[in-house]
Structure formats: structure tokens, C-alpha cells
Amino acid sequence: MLAALTLLLVFQLLGEVIARALALPVPGPVIGMALLFVTLLLRGGPSEDLRQTAGTLLQHLSLLFVPAGTGIVLYGDRIAAEWLPLTVALVGSTALAIIVTALVLRALTRRQTTTGGPRQ
Hints:
single chain, mainly alpha
């Protein structure tokens, strides 16, 4: 488990270094996750140790929401003062995600009917 955690942290660190060195607007952990994904594709998938470690982390995923909840409590006054832009951003991004999902589903459905059904 220690080796798998080290691997995950190394990729996160690598992503952070790349993001800061190139001044990218993408968070370092996202870049690290993409690099890990490419590496796993090239290696043919994760090792059993990495698979078990990731499963354990996912079982305790709810613990990662504690800092976000603390931030909401800590910055409650600011959130109350900025409620309108936050609400517009939340509703707008949700609506945009639903619209994009519907358009992609429609395009894939049309493509499936024109090609004669799903591929087996």
C-alpha cells in the first residue's frame, strides 16, 4: 500500500511541478491524474496493489468533504454576501452541463441509428 500511495503522490507532485513551471491554468493534481492515466494505459492497467489502495481511498472518500464543509462554515458570511453570483454560477453551470449532455446523447443516438445499431 505504501508503494501505491507513493506512486499517487509522485504523480500529483509531477503534475504540480508541470502546472507551476508552465504557468498552466489547470490544477497540478488534474495534470498528475492525466499523466497517471496515460501511464496506466501504456502499462496495461493498474497493479493489484494500486487497485486495492485506490479502492480503500474511495471507501473513505467522504472524509475529503470535511475541508469543504469547514470552508463553508468559515466563510459563511462571504457566501451570504455573494449569494447571487454563486447561485447564478451554480444554476448556469448545471444547465450548461445538462444541455451539453443532451446534445452529446442526441448526436450519439443519431450516429448509432445511421450505422445500424450498437457495435458488438
